[in-house]
Amino acid sequence: MKQSFYERIYALVHEIPKGKIATYGQLALLAGSPRASRIVGAAMAKAPAGRNLPCHRVIYTDGRLLPGGAFGGMEIQRQLLQKEGVTFLRDGRVDVKRNLWQPGSLVSAALEGTENMFPDA
DNA sequence: CAAGTGACAATAA
DNA sequence: TTTATTGCCACTT
Description:
The chain has 121 residues and is mainly alpha-helical.
């Protein structure tokens, strides 16, 4: 029985370790559709309570949080991430380069050729 | 079956 | 640098 992409997304988000963050594009890539970043967002938006999804660890590729206050205020989200151990830039953005979730060997094949993902620390 | 929708991402100005 | 537009894919109606 095949699970919808949404279920796949939920599983991935649930796999995000504490103190790390992931971007919608990253989750989409892991889900199997590198361009389905919007699907990830849609999945989060429709994410049913009970899954305890750490959706606050999912941010933009720029390291920017959700404007408007999808979590009840993005400042809340910033506090949460900071409390988890995620480092922030002075611009108020998450340091994606340092805190991006890197799932073991799972990505090795997907990122084949991306030898230098972090040119600068 | 066709059109519309959206917690995004990349490119242009 | 920020703002605006386009493309994108799965899901809903």
